[in-house]
Amino acid sequence: MGRTASYPPGAGHPSGAAPGLRTAIAGVGMIGRVHLDAVRRTGAPVVGVSASSPARAKEAAAALGVEHAYDSSEELVTSDDVDVVHICTPNDAHAPLAELALRAGKHVVCEKPLTTSPESAATLAALARETGLVAAVPFVYRYHPMAAEARARAADGRTGEIRLVHGHYLQDWLSEPGDTNWRVDAVAGGPSRAFADIGSHWCDLVEWVTGHRITELTALTQTVDRAGGRPATEDAVQLLFRTDRGATGTLTVSQISPGRKNRLWFEVDGTRTSLAFDQEAPESLFVGSRGENGAVLRDPATLSPAAARLSVVPGGHPMGYLDCFAAFVRDVHDTVRAGGPRRTTPLYPTFDDAARMVRLTAAVLGSAADRTWKEVD
Ligand SMILES: NC(=O)c1ccc[n+]([C@@H]2O[C@H](COP(=O)([O-])OP(=O)(O)OC[C@H]3O[C@@H](n4cnc5c(N)ncnc54)[C@H](O)[C@@H]3O)[C@@H](O)[C@H]2O)c1
User: Fold this and answer.
1) Cα separation of 35 and 297, whole Å?
2) Which residues form a coiled coil (predicted)?
3) pLDDT at residue 337 is higher than 70
4) Last residue of a domain, which of 119, 139, 159?
5) Please, which residues have CB within 8 angstroms of residue 160's CB and are 6 or more apart in sequence?
6) What is residue 76's predicted lDDT score, i.e. its pLDDT?
7) Percent of the chain with pLDDT over 90
8) What is the pLDDT of residues 157-174, one digit of tens each?
9) Residue 147 falls within a domain, yes or no?
């Protein structure tokens, strides 16, 4: 009997719409608008937004076609009319808003870095566990199908024992003397900038792909004098590390690399094959061996099930960053509908994962300050 072909062949299917999950978004700058698009793609309503002032919230709500403009983010995260809140504000507002939201019984999606200190991250992660609510952080590079394919190949033995992990995350938007942003400010942004902002994404992704944990590290940081001598946070980090399973690694993180826009790249070298993934060219995964080298293309018909589930259009129809966010929000909604993380194992990155990245960030800053190796639990 012939096999019935599906179109797209073998593709993962987005879960159904979640009309009941009323969502509100605190902060609708660059990433808040990406969250808004992702929520709408699930079919759930975005019922309200907040901004840095009531007037800006009204403007944003009108521009984005959202019904309600909250006067403050505090009002938004505690509103009776909301089931899921997304916190997309500058970093220093994450912890207080996430705590208020959890205490008000809301499911929370909070942007990274979860908080600006390891202590507050631990407190928040513990609170999230106590409540049994969904508490998710969009380390969304995990949602690229070919990154998921790398994870599947590392887990099923095709890669062999992992010996080396290396790569970089490079941007250029702070490379010129006049460049600035709230992220540069150590209060709004927190004590780490480049590492907390993008290094944490790389480490989360690489730990997720390999199943290894970074346990020891030493770091060098570099800070550009952009503020006329005022204290500023680091623009670049160079990191040397060991993992709990005996691999060694290096990472360069920079927001001052001209021409590099969002170059997150990693390579994992195992005893059988090497795997390399480039976030700016996410439709393929380099798979190298002594005998044969090549790019494995995203094709849901041939990928591992965990990668095929994220691959919602056929190969040759490029997917990207916005699709990662949509898949992440679908996982959040699926877990809410399943009764929360006590009823089903969450597939999304949790507050515990994000708290680990805050601890790693503190170890990086500590190592650079002391010129020593630091252990990370
Ligand atoms: N997961 C990712 O891939 C990703 C990507 C980019 C940014 N982020 C994170 O998202 C957050 C926002 O970054 P962004 O790039 O959108 O910055 P942004 O500057 O574009 O937007 C932040 C917005 O928040 C508003 N705001 C300030 N205080 C507020 C408050 N109390 N309540 C509501 N709104 C407030 C600002 O006016 C601004 O419009 C940061 O924590 C950042 O680290 C994550």
Assistant:
1) 27
2) none
3) yes
4) 139
5) 270, 271, 272, 273
6) 98
7) 90
8) 999 999 999 999 999 999
9) yes
Instruction: Looking at the structure, tell me whether residues 224 and 151 fall in a common domain.
Output: yes
Domain count of the chain?
2
The amino acid present at 6, given as its one-letter code, is S
Q: How far apart are CA 153 and CA 65, in angstroms?
A: 43
278 located within any domain:
yes
Dump pLDDT digits (tens) for 186-235.
999 999 999 999 999 999 999 999 999 999 999 999 999 876 666 689 99
The CA distance from 18 to 226, in Å, is: 46
Q: What is the pLDDT of residue 232?
A: 85
Q: Whose CA is nearest to atom 18 of ligand 1?
A: 29
Domain with 157 in it? 141-320+345-370
For residues 107 and 164, state if they share a domain: no
Catalytic residue among 106, 112, 261, 374: 112
Compute how many other C-beta atoms are within 10 angstroms of the C-beta atom of residue 184: 19
Tell me the C-alpha distance between 169 and 147, whole Å.
Answer: 15
* Residues lining ligand 1, Cβ inside 6 A: 26-27, 29-32, 50-52, 73, 88-91, 93, 111-112, 138, 140, 182, 197
Q: What is the CATH number of the domain that holds 58?
A: 3.40.50.720
Instruction: For the chain, give the percent of residues with pLDDT over 70.
Output: 94
The conformation of residue 369, written as its DSSP 8-state character, comes to H
134 CA from centroid of ligand 1 (Å):
21
Whether pLDDT at 2 is above 70: no
**Is pLDDT of 84 > 90?**
yes
Torsion of CA 370, 371, 372, 374, to 10 degrees: 70
Do residues 73 and 84 touch, judged by C-beta distance below 8 A?
Answer: no
Cα of 38 from ligand 1 centre, angstroms = 16
- Is the residue at 9 inside a domain? no
Q: Where is 149: in which H helix or E strand?
A: helix 145-155
* CA–centroid distance, residue 321 to ligand 1 (Å): 17
106 is annotated as an active-site residue: no
Is residue 7 in a domain?
Answer: no
Nearest CA to ligand 1 atom 11: 88
